[in-house]
Each structure stands twice: as C-alpha cells, then as structure tokens.
Design brief:
With 308 residues, this protein is an alpha/beta fold. 58% of the residues lie in helices and 9% in strands. The protein starts with a helix and ends in a 5-residue tail after the last helix.
Length: 308
C-alpha cells in the first residue's frame, strides 16, 4: 500500500471512530430517561445529580466524536478517547464479573447490548484508535477557538434540548388527584393510616414504567419501608395480577410493592386521566402530589424520615 493510500485509510478510520462516538451520544440522548435511570439504579448519588451526570457523559462522548471527525486537537483528543475507553471498559468488566446481562445503555435504546458485548465493541474501538495513534493528518487552523466554541455550543444546546427534571420542578406543580373522591377508596383499601406514598400507574404506560424505576431507586437509596409505598393500577386486563407481576419484574428494578387495581371508570375520575401520579398521604390527608417530572427525591425521603 502506498503512503497516500495509508493516509487516506487512517483518515477514514478516524472519521468512522468519531462517528461511532457521536452516534453513541445521540442514541443515549434519544432515550435520556432510560439512561438517567440506569445511572441512578446504582445508588451512587441522588437522581438530580445522576440526571446531570447523564448529560455530561453525552456531551463528553459527542465532543470526542466531533473532534475526531474534524481532527481537532488531535493528540489530546486521542488521549481522552483512550482514557474514556479504559474507564468505560473497567465499568463494563465490573458489571460482567457481577453477572449483569441487562442492557448497559452504551447505545441507548438503539441497540440492546449487555456489558460483555459492549466490552467486545470497546476492544474493536481500541484497535481502531491504536491504528490511527501516530497519524495526525491535516489540522485545521485556530483549533483551540473552534474546539472551545464547539464545546460551549454542544453543552448549552443539549441542556436546552433536554433540560433535567430539576429545571421544571419549581414550575411543575401537580393537582390532578381528586382527594375527596379518593378518600373512601383509600379507606376501603386500608391506605388511610400513617404515612404513605401511593403511586397511580397503568401497566402499559411507558412513563409509568420510568416512574416506577425512579421510585424504586428512591425507596432503596433511602431505605423507605416498601410496605409504606402502594401502587394502584388502572385495570386494563382481565387478569390484572399477571400484568402487575410483569410490570414490577420489568420496571422498578424488580422491586415489587403492595398493589391494588381499579376499573378505568373509577381510576380516571380520581386522577383526571393523568398518570403517573405519586401522592403522599398522612393519616388520610393529602400532603403532596407529584407527576413524573416533579418528583422530589429529598422531599419524599424527608417525609419518611421517622419510618426508617
């Protein structure tokens, strides 16, 4: 292979490598809720911090891809690419050794890859990076300025396109539950005494599934007694018990909570058709109501402080 052909091939590999990083970032962005909840599921930090961390990871990954494609800051970008592959691979190896076979969300919901499969993908990316390591190619002028403007634009743009829930929390105040109509229902189900969180879900609602995962993370992170959190499902199937079991297995990290279900003609008037809803009650009195976006982890944890 002549020298010019080798240069063209290495440039092509660099662009493909960059495109893969950029695509991976965009795939995570397209399934942001799932990616946020995946990070939150490990219990390292609160949901708000995990939500911001998810966006920073996407920004970092997209910028690596962008810089590789346009050959910006060639040497620092290659080092950052190498460090990111090592860091992500260490995490994937840890999950593999723990026997984790669930999606690692490396490609968002676009491609379902378990940690072992993603490790293989990282090995291929590492070999591509090694191949182009000593090839800088043609560099653009004013690289530092272009890189700074690109980083600022991508960061601001992502937070504008996909703001974290905490941005909306002060502007989002749910008042959908008909508390007077719910009181006799709560009495009949034995939910009128003590401090309780009651979640209104439909088993087929995607946002309800995400809400269940968020609530499961909050319950586990703050050791909230699971018997103090109940779920009311809108009955959508004749055998609702099987739907509930499947819902808890697939959503909410497998945490099964006490549940009951109501016919849609009774459920919908209670919630004004809104779902999911999470409602805090103390001795039958409404304390706070949240929709999915306005759920406040610290507030819920504080509500149950004396129950742990």
């Amino acid at each position: 292979m002549c020298k010019s052909s080798g240069v063209i091939l290495k440039s092509a590999v660099r662009i493909i490598l960059g495109a893969f990083f950029a695509l991976s970032a965009l795939a995570k962005l397209s399934s942001m809720e799932s990616f946020e909840l995946y990070i939150f599921s490990f219990g390292f930090a609160g949901f708000d911090l995990c939500s911001i961390a998810a966006r920073l990871i996407i920004i970092f990954e997209f910028l690596i891809g962008f810089f590789l494609i346009f050959n910006l800051l060639s040497r620092p970008t290659k080092w950052l690419t190498a460090l990111s592959l090592v860091g992500f691979s260490a995490f994937l190896l840890w999950r593999t050794l723990l026997g984790d076979k669930e999606s690692c969300h490396c490609m968002g919901d676009l491609v379902d890859m378990n940690p072992l499969q993603s490790l293989g993908k990282n090995l291929i990316l590492g070999l591509m990076l090694a191949y182009i390591w000593n090839h800088d190619g043609k560099l653009l002028k004013r690289q530092n300025l272009i890189a700074a403007i690109s980083a600022a634009a991508v960061s601001v743009g992502l937070f504008l396109v996909s703001p974290p829930d905490l941005y909306y929390r002060n502007m989002s105040d749910s008042h959908d539950l008909s508390s007077e109509a719910f009181r006799p229902v709560a009495d009949s189900l034995g939910l009128s005494s003590g401090k309780r969180a009651i979640c209104f879900y439909s088993g087929s609602c995607e946002h309800c599934q995400h809400c269940a995962s968020k609530m499961a993370g909050i319950i586990r992170r703050h050791s909230i007694p699971s018997e103090r959190v109940s779920v009311l499902f809108m009955q959508t199937h004749e055998n609702q018990d099987s739907v509930a079991v499947s819902f808890f297995a697939e959503s909410g990290e497998g945490l099964e909570l006490p549940y009951s279900y109501l016919h849609p003609l009774k459920f919908i008037p209670l919630t004004n058709g809104a779902m999911p809803l999470v409602v805090l009650f103390e001795d039958g009195e409404l304390v706070k109501e949240y929709d999915y976006i306005s759920i406040d982890e610290d507030e819920i944890a504080s509500f149950f402080d004396d129950q742990r």
